[in-house]
Each structure stands twice: as C-alpha cells, then as structure tokens.
Amino acid sequence: MSSEKQWHAEDRALSLDNESSILVPSGSAEKIAEAMRSLMDDRTKLQKLAKASRERIINEFSVEAYVSYFDKLFASLS
Questions:
Q1: Would you call 7 exposed, middle or buried from its count of C-beta atoms within 10 A (0-12, 13-18, 19+)?
Q2: Contacting residues for 25 by C-beta, under 8 A, at least 6 apart
Q3: What is the pTM of this model?
Q4: Are 38 and 17 in contact (CB under 8 A)?
Q5: How far is CA 74 from the centre of its chain?
Q6: DSSP 6-64
Q7: C-alpha dihedral, 22 to 26 to 30 to 34, nearest 10°
Q8: What is the tens place of the pLDDT at every residue in 25-61?
Q9: Is residue 52 a contact partner of residue 29, using CB atoms and an 8 Å limit?
C-alpha cells in the first residue's frame, strides 16, 4: 500500500507498510478485516510487526529522539 497516504510526524512516516504495520485504504472494512485475518493466521508476522513498531516509536519518536533531533538542528543553525 505504499501509494496510500501515510500519517506523518514531520518528515518521518509513523507507519511503514509491512515493516511496522499493515496499511489499508481508508474506509475499506473488507481490507481491514483481511489484514486482521492475515495477522491472526500468521502469529510470527504479528510479533515481528509489533516488535518493529515498538522499536520504531522508541527510536524515532521518543522524547530522547526529539531532543537529539532538535539539538542537531539548532547546532546546524549556529
């Protein structure tokens, strides 16, 4: 679903299709159900996505990550 719109925080996508989530078209109950069924049938994939999602949020969107980002930004401006 890389052509689908993704939610963003600044320039970084919060969700990466098949890396940290499964993106589905907005308003498509059938596609949502299909994605949910695929995760229910493949626990390994579910655990992989859950782990990758948690790691991505911690590494990219934690307070520490934002402090580091702004520290580098302000240093580059001076």
A1: exposed
A2: 1, 4, 31
A3: 0.65
A4: no
A5: 26
A6: --EETTEES--BTTTB----TT-HHHHHHHHHHHHH-HHHHHHHHHHHHHHHHHHHSHH
A7: 0
A8: 889 999 999 999 999 999 999 999 999 999 988 888 8
A9: no
The answer to whether the CB of 9 falls within 8 A of the CB of 2 is no
CB 23 within 8 A of CB 3: no
77 three-class SS: helix
Looking at residue 40, its amino acid is M
